[in-house]
Design a protein that fits this description.
Blueprint (H helix, E strand, L loop, with lengths): L28 H10 L2 H5 L18 H19 L3 H10 L8 H11 L8 H12 L13 H9 L9 H9 L10 H24 L5 H4 L3 H13 L5 H31 L4 H6 L9 H19 L2 H23 L6 H4 L8 H12 L3 H12 L6
């Protein structure tokens, strides 16, 4: 393994864990974090959590689990080229979506609206909550007891937190994560890998679902160049193969752009440690301005042609109603919660009860939420 860059996080200088544990004789602290994330209940549930399409709409579409694995692959590849800690970057990529509720952004919007009187709902804060409180696997502590560096990256991988959510502020009060600074390069790599995977794989799923055609996607400058190259090299290939080849090329171009821009920013800053990265006035891992503009065009295209497509809109509205109904019933009647959740909920209609109900719903998979909705609303189904 090549020597780590000066600005990389070093496992041997980790700030440790909230609850001290003896070192593992084989794995580094960040390898251990990655393994705990993979074996967590929250990670397994991602298999049946929506990316865009609900799980029963087809098994060829991405879920939160497959998306997280794809992000981890990209993050690890970029981390290797930058000579930073691959295991930390991978752990953060695998954990970044643990706090997503069922039904993708529809579920998040519904929970955020319902929780607005109590501080709102944010999936990044919920990811932190999942690995610090909600996982109940160890006898000595709640959560996974991850290293400070992994928790910091999970909290701030999208940048400094100026207005933390109630939970994040509370957690930071007892285990400070330096919320006002940038995160490590490893965390920034995980965030950019998420952006690259998100847009390109949504393009792939949108094409598979027939929400738009390859010719329509090719009107985008970044995608169009790739499509023209593929059609020149493989004119007889099927549209599906041409689409896959084009998206693969777009991903490669975006990764190369990140490497070039990161190299330019790191050379300008010349960081001698990860602390220099944290104190920098801007992130070190970013797209160039032209690529940022091209990426935004892809986002805008997907928003208009996919996320707001009438078929997706129907599912979105149904999903929101499921979440709203579950919250209303359980917030007003916490005695219907399973015992392990009910004991912490307190009185009906209170802020404490709302927080527990929110955590319960956010932890659900799509299919469990639908089943729970049926159990609570259909008098013919036994509870």
């Amino acid at each position: 393994m090549p020597e780590l860059a000066p600005f990389a996080v070093r496992p041997e200088t980790s700030r440790g864990r909230l609850h001290p544990e003896p070192a593992d004789g084989v794995r580094s602290p960040f390898q251990r974090d990655r393994d705990r994330i993979i074996h967590s209940t929250a990670f397994r549930r991602l298999q049946y959590k929506t990316q865009v399409f609900i799980y029963h709409e087809g098994d060829a579409f991405r879920t939160r689990l497959t998306h997280s694995i794809e992000v981890a692959q990209l993050a690890r590849s970029i981390a290797r080229r930058l000579r930073i800690d691959e295991d930390l970057a991978e752990a953060l990529a695998l954990a970044h979506d643990l706090g997503h509720p069922p039904f993708g952004h529809a579920g998040e919007e519904a929970l955020n609206g319902l929780m607005r009187p109590y501080g709102g709902f944010d999936h990044n804060a919920q990811s932190l909550k999942a690995v610090t409180v909600l996982e109940k696997r160890y006898a000595g502590f709640d959560g996974l007891n991850l290293t400070w560096e992994t928790l910091e990256g999970l909290a701030k991988h999208n940048g400094p937190i100026r207005r933390p959510s109630p939970f994040m502020a509370e957690y930071d009060g007892r285990h400070p994560l330096d919320l006002g600074s940038h995160a490590s390069v490893e965390a920034q790599v995980a965030a950019l890998a998420d952006d690259i995977a998100y847009n390109n794989h949504d393009l792939d799923d949108g094409l598979r679902a027939g929400l738009f055609t390859l010719d329509e996607a090719a009107t985008l400058p970044l995608v169009g160049d790739a499509v023209r190259e593929v059609r020149t090299l493989h004119p007889e290939a099927s549209p599906g193969r041409q689409a896959s080849e084009a998206i693969r090329r777009v991903i490669n171009v975006m990764v190369q752009d990140v490497m070039t821009e990161a190299g330019r920013r790191l050379a300008a800053l010349a960081p001698r440690s990860v602390e220099d990265v944290r104190a920098a006035g801007r992130p070190m891992i970013a797209f160039s301005e032209p690529m940022q503009a091209a990426n935004q065009q892809v986002r805008d295209f997907l928003r208009g042609r996919m996320y707001r497509h009438w078929r997706v809109n129907r599912t979105t509205q149904k999903s929101k109603r499921v979440v709203q109904m579950l919250f209303s019933l359980l917030h007003g009647g916490p005695d219907m919660l399973p015992p392990e959740w009910r004991e912490g909920a307190g009185a009906p209609g209170t802020a404490r009860c709302a927080a527990v109900v929110c955590d319960y719903i956010a932890s659900m998979t799509d299919r469990f939420a639908l089943d729970e909705h049926r159990r609570l609303t259909d008098p013919h189904i036994p509870g």
